[in-house]
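Hello again, I could really use a second opinion on something today. For a while now I've been wondering how a particular protein folds. Please have a think about how the structure follows from the sequence. Here's the protein in full, and shout if anything looks odd to you:

***
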Amino acid sequence: MSTEKVPEIIESGEAHDVDDDGRIKRTGTVLTASAHIITAVIGSGVLSLAWAIAQLGWVGGPIVLTAFSVITWLMSTLQADCYRDPVTGKRNYTYTGAVRANLGGIKYRLCGIAQYVNLVGVTIGYTITASISMAAVQRSNCFHKNGHKVKCYANTNPFVIIFACFQIILSQIPNFHKLGFLSIIAAVMSFAYSSIGIGLTIAKVAGGGHVRTTLTGVTVGVDVSGTEKVWRTFQALGDIAFAYAFSTVLIEIQDTLKSSPPENKVMKRASAVGVIITTFFYMLCGLVGYAAFGNDAPGNFLTGFGFYEPFWLIDFANICIAIHLIGAYQVFGQPVFQSVEKNARRRWPENRFITAEHGVKLPLIGVYYISSFRVIWRTAYVILTAVIAMIFPFFNDFVGLLGALIFFPMTVYFPIEMYLKNRQIKRSSPTWTWLKILSFVCLIVSLCALVGSFQGLIKDVMSFKPFKTKH
C-alpha cells in the first residue's frame, strides 16, 4: 500500500509555468515550509505535555524535550538529503516514494504498514480526544452551575457518535485536493486552543497558590508506587514523542519548495526554524503547565479540569479542539480511504459497484458524483474507529501508544537507512557507526514508551466498562 500522490503533469504552457519534471512550478520558501512544519507538529499533543513533565520533573522533563527536538531536527536533515536521487536527480514526491526509491523491497512494504498503522491509530486517537473535549464542555457548565466540589460526570459515547456523524459526511469528500478549507480551519483552531491553554497556565502561576513540584517528578511513596513511577515515565516518553511526530509529511512539505536554491538546503533551514519554534512552544506548555499544576497535573490540561474558570473560555478552547480534530481526522483518514479504493479498482476493474460513479445535483454545489462503494466503505471505517474509541476512551495512554509506534520507524529508522543508502556511507565508518548507535538507542526508548503506554491502557481497561462508565 502507498499514500503516494503524484502531482498532475502539465501538458502545455510556458516553460516558466512548469518545473524540471514537467509538473506545476513550485513556489515554496523557507517561510512557507517552516509554517507547514509548525502547523503539522503543534496539535493535540500539547495537551498532555504538562502531565508528561510531571512524571519526569524539572530535570528530566527539559532534557527529554530537548533530546526529542534535537533528534527530530537531525532526522529531518537526513530526510531532506533523500529528496532527490543522487544519480538521476529525480524528485521523490512523498515519504513512501522516498523509501521506495532509496530502499525498495521489503523495507518499502514495512514502511507502508507502519504508515497505515499510524494513520488508522491517529484517526482513533482523534475520535477519543474530540469526544472527551466535547464532554468537557458539558462538565464545565455543570461545575460552573453547581460548584467545583460537585462530581460532574459526562458519558463520552454520545459525543463519539456526534463526531462520527460529522466524519461520515466529510468522508465523502473524494480526495485531498478538496480538503484545503478544512486544513486552514484546523490550523487556526490548533493555535487557538494551544494559546488559550498557555495563557490559562501562566495566569494560574501568576495567581499564586502552592503546588508541589520536584526535580524528579512524581514522588515514589507519596504520589505513586515505584512500579507505577517506571510505567508513567515510559508513557511520558511516548506522549512527548507523539507531540514531535511530523516526519511522515516532511518530504511532502519539501516538495512544495522552489528548485533553486537546492531544496535540501532550504528544507534544512526550514526544519531548524520549525523545530526551534515548536520546542519553545512545547517548553512553555510543559514547564509552565507543570509549574501551574505540579505533580497533580491532569493528563489533558483543558479537559482534566486543572482550570474551572473562566468557564466560557475553557468551553471555547474545547470547542476549538473538537473543530480542529474534525478536520485533522480527514487529513489522516483520506490516505486510508484512497488506498483501499485504489487497490479495489485495480483488483476488480469490471465490478460496477466499485467503479461506478453516479452524478447527483445538489443545491449550491452542482453535480456531485457518488460511489456506492465509497459511501459504504468509508462509513464502515468511521463506525469502526468510533466503536474502538468507545471501548478505549483513554487519552494519555492512546497518545503515548501512538507516539511509541510512530517515533522509531518513521522518525528514526527509515530516515537513517535512506541516508546511509543515498549517500553510500561505508559500513563501519564513523558516520555509519554513530547513526546505527543512535537508531538502536531510539529503538530502546520507543520500546519502553510502548510498554509503558500499553501497561497503562491495560490498567485502565481492567477498571472500565465499555459503553457504561462515565468520566
Observations:
- The radius of gyration is 23 Å.
- The domain at 15-462 is CATH 1.20.1740 (Amino acid/polyamine transporter I).
- Residues 1-15 have pLDDT under 50 and may be disordered.
